[in-house]
Write a structure and sequence with these properties.
Blueprint lengths: L7 E3 L5 E12 L7 H9 L13 E8 L2 H4 L9 E6 L3 E6 L4 E5 L14 E6 L13 E5 L4 E6 L4 E6 L1 E2 L4 E2 L10 E7 L1 H5 L4 E6 L3 E6 L4 E5 L14 E6 L8 E6 L3 E6 L4 E6 L18 E7 L9 E6 L3 E6 L4 E5 L3 E6 L8 E6 L3 E6 L4 E5 L14 E6 L7 E7 L3 E9 L9
Antiparallel strand pairs: 1-2, 2-3, 2-31, 4-5, 5-6, 6-7, 8-9, 9-10, 10-13, 11-12, 14-15, 15-16, 16-17, 18-19, 19-20, 20-21, 22-23, 23-24, 24-25, 26-27, 27-28, 28-29, 30-31
Length: 428
């Protein structure tokens, strides 16, 4: 029987909308499911043999993904709902609330019950012994060592490596100290017992941050560098409130390897954690200090003072924010220790932003993409691997209306909307 895959969805105005998936950057261990990577993955028992100096296959310009080839699905009514780029992996949620995860899996961070890399997109199908049903996934956040899922009820599941007291800290899964690994999504029962429901989650290198439906911030895992935001020096094995943010109405969270960000409903950004590259944006040391950190949430001021932020994004060691005026600010990567206004966008209204490892992708109100930062892994999508100091239009996406973009450490994925099979005129 021939399997088919439909990406057609019905718009509010009755028009037929088609969602397409585009990717670029470096496909290491299958993070970008283009044809040549899929063929190599399906013909090998382990990982891909297509390696270059970046440790993967470089695709320096946007490539449309063949959905039928990449995701073998029987249901012809299914469409793509959302995309997630982890540091070294990728996740796709479909309209039937099932998910595929693929990429690096050395710590069982993809939730498939093993530690082998997943070169070909594979349906996330938790065993019957877990309470998570594969068609109830609402949000999936992939990390470099562990990952998390929120289901439609607001229950949180974690999987992967729980950390080590001898390295960067232990307890990041929020499941206690006893469990070193969880190879399949495992319910965080402490939240259920406390009557807490999650709306968002951020996974770092060895810590986790959770936003609840009540606007409360909870953290667990390694305490070094102030990552837990509560002034406590000891690691936590279970999620505990960040008391210093208890009076704030938090509406969004983000973060990177060893730091975290929280956005209030009033548009104020708080940051805490490691700050050796200015990733917290507080400018506390005003110099690049390998021991710099913020051990409690601090509001960003400077150029951000008086601004109403509506979107935040944390990359590996830099971050960005979008204001209600459509202005883009960024900081970190040992370049800006406090937020700076991104140049070349004076007449452009930015509505979304995604940060990777020393690069940034911004989306404007008509669906155009701009990229800047380090381009050595092809992540800027500019058909080269050169650095771009200022935001540069991704010309390979002109004529297409991008509606969602996400970034890993070295790969990018975006969803493109086409109406009645025709592109969108968003040319300059």
């Amino acid at each position: 029987m021939t399997k088919s895959f439909s990406t057609k969805t019905e718009g509010e105005d009755g028009s037929t909308k088609v969602l397409s998936l585009y990717c670029w950057g470096t496909s290491a261990k299958g993070t970008i499911p283009v044809k040549e990577v899929l063929e190599e993955g399906r013909s090998s028992s382990g990982g891909s043999s297509m390696l270059n100096r970046s440790g993967g296959t470089v695709i320096d310009h946007p490539r449309e993904i063949d959905l039928l080839d990449a995701f073998k699905i029987d249901n012809t009514e299914v469409s793509i709902k959302d995309i997630y780029c982890g540091p070294t992996s990728t996740g796709i949620i479909l309209s039937d609330d099932t998910a595929f995860t693929f990429g690096s899996n050395k710590q069982a961070e993809l939730g498939h019950g093993h530690k082998n890399d997943v070169i070909v997109p594979t349906l996330l199908s938790p065993p019957d012994s877990t309470s998570l049903h594969r068609d109830e996934i609402s949000n999936i956040v992939l990390g470099s060592k562990f990952s998390a899922i929120i289901d439609k009820k607001g229950d949180l599941y974690t999987f992967g490596y729980n950390g080590s007291v001898l390295q960067n800290g232990v307890g990041c899964l929020g499941l206690g100290y006893e469990q070193e690994y969880a190879e399949v999504p495992t319910l965080v029962r402490s939240l259920v017992e406390d009557g807490c429901f999650a709306t968002d989650v951020v996974v770092g290198d060895s810590h986790m941050v959770v936003l609840t439906k009540d606007g409360e911030i909870l953290t667990t895992g390694g305490a070094a560098w102030g990552r837990l935001g509560n002034l406590e020096p000891d690691d936590q094995a279970f999620l505990e409130p960040v008391e210093l943010l208890a009076a704030e109405d938090i509406c969004q969270i983000s973060g990177g390897d060893e730091y975290s960000l929280a956005l209030t409903s009033d548009g104020v950004v708080f940051a805490w954690g490691k700050n050796h590259k200015g990733q917290c944006g507080t400018g506390s040391s005003m110099s690049v200090d390998m021991y710099a950190m913020e051990n409690m949430p601090q509001p960003l001021d400077g150029m951000m003072e008086g601004q109403h932020v509506v979107k935040i994004s944390g990359g590996h060691s830099h971050a960005a924010a979008v204001t209600d005026k459509g202005e883009l600010f960024w900081w970190g990567s040992q370049l800006n220790l406090t937020p700076e206004l991104a140049p070349n966008l004076a007449h452009t209204k930015i509505v979304d932003v995604a940060c990777g490892k020393d690069y940034t992708i911004a989306l404007d109100e008509v669906g155009r993409l701009y990229s800047f930062g380090s381009g050595k892994t092809g992540v800027l999508g500019l058909a080269n691997e050169k650095k771009a100091v200022a935001p540069t239009l991704v010309e390979g996406m002109l004529g297409k209306k991008v509606v969602k973009v996400d970034a890993g450490w070295s790969h990018v994925a975006c969803l493109v909307e086409e109406v009645d099979g025709e592109g969108t005129d968003n040319t300059v």
